[in-house]
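[audit] Reproducing an earlier prediction to check determinism. Same input, same settings, fresh worker. If the tokens differ from the archived copy the diff job will pick it up downstream; this log only records the rerun itself.
[audit] input (457 residues):
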Amino acid sequence: MTSGLPQTSVAETLARKIVALKPGSLPAVTARKCEDLLIDVVGLCVTARNEDYMSSALTGWDDDGPCTAIGHTRTLTASGAAFVNGTAAHGEDFDDTFEGGPVHAGAVVVPAVLAACERHNPDGSMALIGIAVGCEVLCRLSVVVPKAVHKAGFHPTAIFGAMGAAAGVGAALGLNAKQIVDALGIAGSMAGGIIEYLAEGAWTKRLHAGWAAQSGMRAALLADQGFVGPRTVFEGVHGLFNGFAHTTEGNYNALTGDFGERWVVDTLAFKPYPCGTMAQPYIDCARRLAARGVAAEDIREIVCEVAEGTVHRLWESLADKQRPPNGYAAKFAVPYLLAAGFVHGGVGLGAFTESAIRDPWVLALAAKVKFTIDPDNPYPNNYTGHIRATLNDGSVIEERQPYLRGGAQEPLTRQDVTEKFMLNAQHGGWNTAQSDAALKLLAGLYESRLDLSALRN
């Protein structure tokens, strides 16, 4: 043992708990959440399959092989499938969210585990364990040093996603504890993802989930063949948190303390709207304001109370958020999203076309939206919304949303998840027969030999 290093590292403690989990050991509610994740991710892959960024991602990955790119006839290597499916699942920003992070676990871990199992271990029960473990690791890592990774300029889903994918694939392929430690250590050198996409709505956020998925999978495969990674990847002087959160002081017990006994993935949220998570409660507030019979032209000003930690991503610069330069930038512009929800009664996939983001009624209202920082806002532990509208006659109307719909306090039902899948599949060009067949396949995927070939269309 090298002087100054811990006898047992954080990764070693975590790995021992991962390998103790066996097929059939998951609580029923956790297994059901993983079933919902599977349905949601496949639907998201289909809804994005004809988008321009997916054409670039698929064509640009010159890596043919035997694995499924969901919604496409072309097959890829396992790493290629993980990348393409992860990019698609995160592409419309309609994927699941862990409210404590915030991170998007399903879009990373599900594609990584499915690709690895399809290629190396087509056992549905092991895929279930892998998805549960990978998502749990990803979510727990995001609360070791809350908000610090975002503040440092990195995308937490990208950074922690590589680690979650490595853990999930390691569990799905039956790696031993030493190999999982190595996989995590290797993945630490593969993690990355800056948030400069916010400047002009570039596409790079979309590939963060896919890149993390294939990176973590590659790390697990390397570890399986004996490649050695640093066991102090988390807490080390030059470890993951020092690199991406600028500190080694964190609550590592949040990662390992009751791992395998309490499952935080049970609280994963499914979004009602295809846009930034923290914007969603504000859209709900706007819809309720419109439902009161208030007309947009009667509003003089709207002021929203917001969390300081969300300002640089969703509110600044205010002029760009009121009039976003393109459809993807609009997904992270609360003034635009709030106005679109008010004018159109909701925000759907059609709200981000070039014509939609130039709607004069929406832009006129968005120009009236401002913000003030609420120092008591509970973000990131809870996502809230607030609107204070001052009308032309001087009267004031307020609306508040105390939590994220679709999250722990108001979760979506299986029927809700299925209906979302059907709408996403329809948007992606699947007919009802194709969607029904996919749902039938997914319903038994964790209980049989894993075969994704029916999703290649």
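[audit] rerun output stored. Observation attached for the diff report: The longest helix spans residues 28-48.
[audit] end
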